[in-house]
Structures are given as C-alpha cells and as structure tokens.
Write a structure and sequence with these properties.
The chain has 426 residues and is α+β, with helices and mostly antiparallel strands. It has three domains: 140 residues, Alpha-Beta Plaits (2-Layer Sandwich), CATH 3.30.70.2500; 151 residues, Sulfite Reductase Hemoprotein, domain 1; 74 residues, 2-Layer Sandwich (Alpha-Beta Plaits), CATH 3.30.70. The longest helix is centred in the last third of the chain and has 20 residues. The chain is globular and about 95 Å long. The protein starts with 6 loop residues before the first helix and ends with a helix. Keywords: 4Fe-4S, Iron, Iron-sulfur, Metal-binding.
C-alpha cells in the first residue's frame, strides 16, 4: 500500500507532545494498512466529514457485543481499511497487567489486526483498532483459549464494568471495589455479551467519594464508597499540620511553594456545608452536616480518615449527551453495606429491580437516566419502593401546583384531621 501525502496530519507532529501520527507512520513499516489509516483520516480532515461508516451486525459467533463494526466508505481509495473493525477486550479489575500479558496481547493483535491499540476506552476496555471480518473468529479463539480473556461490551447491553484501584493500593477505599467489579462481571456475562436492553448500561465502582473512575458523571449505576459514622480525627496530627511539620495534600504541590499551611483558609472555609471549626485548639466536625466531599481528608490525610462503618452510596442515571444533555447520576440509596461474603446481595437486588423497570418502560436508545427524567424522579422512587429524602432533590420546586395521588389524599387527610382534633380536645 502506497504512502499518502498528509500535510494536515503532519502538523500534529510539530507540537511539543508525542503524536499518534508519528506512531502510525512507525507502525506502517510492518503494517502497511496504517498508511491507509492516515490517508483516510487526512481526507476526513480535508472534507470535514467522517469517511467511516458503521458496520452493522458484525461479530463473533454467539456474541452480540464486543465488536464495533467499521467500514470505509471509500474502499477504492484506501483498500487497506476497507474493513476496520474495533475489538473491545475486557480489562482486568483496576487495570493491573503483567508485562507478559501485555506482550502476548500485542503479539496477538499484530497477528490478526493492525497492531494499533488504545489503552483504554472511556468505559475501560482494551481497544484494539482495525481488523478484517475474516480475522475476528481466529482472534477470538486465540484470545479466549491462549490468554483466557474475554470480549467486553458494546451495543445495547451491559458495558464492561470498571473500578478504581480500591483497597489494593488506596487507604481511603470504603469497600473492595475489585471484588465487587469482578463478581458482577462474572455474574452478568450474558448481559454483557448479548444485548437485550433499550440502550447501553454501565455500572462503575469507586472506593470513596473522590470517585477516581468518574462514576457519578458517566455510569447508569454509580457505586461510590462512603461511611455511616463520624470522620476519624487525630488531633495530634491536626496540630502538626497547623505547625507546618506535615505537608498538606500529601506533599503534592506541583513544585510550587504555597506558603505556611492555614487550616482556616485551606480546609475550614472551603467546607461546602460549613460543618468544621476550631475550638480549644482542636478540630471539630458536625458530622450530621458532612456531605463526604473528601476535601478535608485529602488536604490532611494524616489527621483525618473516613469513618469505620463503611459501605457505599448508590446513584442512578448519569450519561453523556445522546438523546438529551449530559447529566450526573442522582442519589437513590444513601448507604448500603458492601460485603463480598454475601456476594453484594443488596446491590444486585437493586440493579435487577432497576433493569426490570427500565426494560419495561424505557424507549429505544434511551438511557435509564433519560427514562427517569421522562417519567419523573417521584415515579422512579415509588417504583423502587424507596422513601424520598432531601438529598434526591436536584433543585427547589418551581411549579406552584402540588399533585397528590388519590390514595395519599384520602387516608392522609382523614388521619391529619383526627390527629388535630385529638390534640386540641386534650
């Protein structure tokens, strides 16, 4: 395959950062189809439209997901990318790899595909970019039999679950994110590989409210570690921070000297609910007002720790802008235990209850957050058989009219009248 002139793409090599254009040119020495990758991208830059078209139904036998079909719409110009399918491979929990595993995977992709990889897709999958239809089955055979790895999710199904590093390396993690991710990935293999949902569905596991996998912004069910009791305080360490003997933020200052640590300016005044103050030389926290933002813990990690009664908050409905605008997930379960001993039973029951409702009332290509938005949060809460709490309220009510269900009005009104009469009769 001939080398193409790519003056527009070549500009991307002129900046201070490493360029994928340079990488593709190097790859073309052993994989000539990479010249056609550059050529078709140059044409897309010139025409300002994509020259890739979706491949429709293409995949491996028995699986409805894991392969994203792609074909060039100008194959006569770029025959090397006439077929250019993407393969999604499920990543290990927390993305821990051995060098031997990565080498084996790269060798496999050099054998069956273009050798071009993306580590990782936004969902977390290992993304292998570019192969022909006839190579899919041989690649899949080698992946599953030689490497004991599987495809991830694509299409209207459960996407590959993802998690933060959790208790393996992070002292703030409030539950075992790796075990939760692994257990639910194994449990829902059918939902990952055989699309049956109205649209895609993701759940992600963050061990603490720092939410290092951005679950609250992009997953249909966000499982975010939290604690139920009080933040643990080491008052002696607080004094050391104030005295300047411990570096704040774990010493992460990007090389800049910010001056002497000021607990009022850097911690207390930045608390979103003003629930912290100094009294008698000690740091005080009104834990009933704490929203678990993690700021104070991040700034003074030696002095403050999450509480001892740990679990997770479950939020529902985040997504990127597809049918509607982007939205964060909504708090639905403030606290549930997260024990691997019972296979995360409470979380599993909730997930399947959401699925049962969404698969019945959700429209085609409608994420669960959009279904919630369409029918209203009160309806969702009622279907989930949950008690509403103030934390579920997104913004103050702007509609002056209040609508009551008939069964709520009759019994509730009569009960209120009886209680009023009894109180004043006394």
């Amino acid at each position: 395959m001939a080398k193409h002139e790519t003056p527009l793409l070549d500009q991307l090599e002129s900046g201070p950062w490493p360029s994928f254009v340079t990488d593709l040119k190097q790859q073309a020495a052993t994989k000539p189809e990479c010249w056609d990758i550059l050529g078709i991208l140059e044409l897309s830059f010139k025409d300002r439209i994509t020259h890739w078209k979706h491949g429709g139904i293409v995949g491996v036998f028995g699986y409805g997901g894991g392969i994203v079909g792609r074909y060039a719409d100008v194959p006569e110009l770029f025959p090397g990318v006439e077929h250019f399918h993407t393969v999604r491979v499920a990543q290990p929990s927390s993305k821990y790899y051995s060098s031997a595993n990565l080498r084996q995977l790269c060798d496999l992709w050099e054998k069956h595909g273009s050798g071009v990889t993306n580590m990782h897709g936004s969902t977390g999958d290992i993304i292998l970019l570019g192969t022909r239809t006839e190579n899919l089955e041989p690649f899949f055979w080698d992946l599953t039999h030689d490497m004991n790895q599987d495809l991830g999710g694509s299409g209207s199904n459960l996407r590959t679950p993802a998690n933060c590093i959790g208790e393996s390396r992070c002292e703030w993690s409030c539950y075992d994110t790796e075990e939760a991710c692994y257990k639910l990935t194994m449990q829902y293999q059918d939902e990952i590989h055989r699309p049956a949902f109205p649209y895609k569905f993701k759940f992600k596991f963050s061990g603490c409210p720092n939410d290092c996998v951005a679950a609250i912004a992009r997953s249909d069910i966000s499982v975010i570690g939290t604690w139920k009791d009080d933040i643990r305080i080491d008052q002696a360490a607080v004094k050391e921070y104030i005295a300047g003997n411990y570096p704040s933020n774990g010493g992460a200052h990007s090389g800049r000297d910010w001056g002497k640590f000021d607990i009022t300016k850097e911690v207390i005044d930045l608390c979103p609910t003003n629930c912290m103050w100094m009294e008698g030389g000690e740091l005080k926290i009104d834990n009933s007002e704490c929203t678990r933002c993690m700021h104070c813990i991040n700034v003074m990690p030696r002095a403050l720790r999450p509480g001892a009664e740990k679990g997770a908050s479950v939020l529902v409905g985040a997504k990127a802008p597809i049918l509607d605008g982007a939205q964060f997930s909504t708090l639905v379960l403030p606290f549930i235990p997260m024990s691997a001993d019972n296979d995360f039973e409470e979380l599993v029951e909730f997930i399947e209850k959401v699925w049962d409702w969404w698969m019945e009332v959700g429209k085609n290509r409608e994420r669960v957050g959009e279904t919630m938005q369409r029918v209203g949060l009160p309806t969702f809460i009622k279907v989930m058989e949950l008690e509403p709490i103030p934390q579920m309220v997104k913004e103050p009510r702007s509609n002056p009219y209040v609508f009551w269900a008939e069964e709520e009005v009759e019994g509730g009104f009569e009960r209120d009248v009886e209680e009023f009469r009894a109180k004043h009769a006394a």
